């Protein structure tokens, strides 16, 4: 059983930056890929970025060049550095971990004001 706890969300002006963190515990050695998803009001949850245990990271086109996903295996934590934020980035951001099952965190709210 993997538990995921996100942090780092908040209110920021357009053009600003935030760094989200997702701390994993329990069953961490079986985690393969980790990633960030987001869900804006009235919209479906969408992929933001993923980082496998080996290999290249993947980014949605809407965040390429602005967001960076990274992983600190020693701290069992995955990060999402978000720069040049836009109002359309406003959403609840969720961390996801994949083993033989899929686990989700409870989410952290990011609000970008214009």
Written account of the structure:
With 114 residues, the protein is mainly β. The protein has strands at residues 3-7, 10-13, 18-25, 34-39, 46-51, 58-59, 67-72, 77-82, 91-98, 102-104, 108-113. Strands 2, 4, 5, 6, 9, 10 and 11 form a seven-stranded mixed beta sheet that branches. Strands 1-3-8-7 form a four-stranded antiparallel beta sheet, with no helix packed on it. Strand 9 and strand 10 form a beta hairpin.
Structural class: mainly beta
- What is the global morphology? globular
Helix count equals: 0
Distance between the termini: 40 Å
Order of helices and strands: EEEEEEEEEEE
Sheet with most strands: 7 strands, mixed
Number of E strands: 11
Fraction of residues in H or I helices: under 10%
Please, what is the average pLDDT? Answer: 94
Radius of gyration from CA coordinates: 13 Å
Unreliable spans: none
What fraction strand? over 45%
In short:
The protein has no helices and eleven strands. It has strands at 3-7, 10-13, 18-25, 34-39, 46-51, 58-59, 67-72, 77-82, 91-98, 102-104, 108-113. The strands form two sheets. Strands 2, 4, 5, 6, 9, 10 and 11 form a seven-stranded mixed β-sheet that branches.
Features:
114 residues, mainly beta
Give the SSE layout:
Blueprint: E1 3-7, E2 10-13, E3 18-25, E4 34-39, E5 46-51, E6 58-59, E7 67-72, E8 77-82, E9 91-98, E10 102-104, E11 108-113
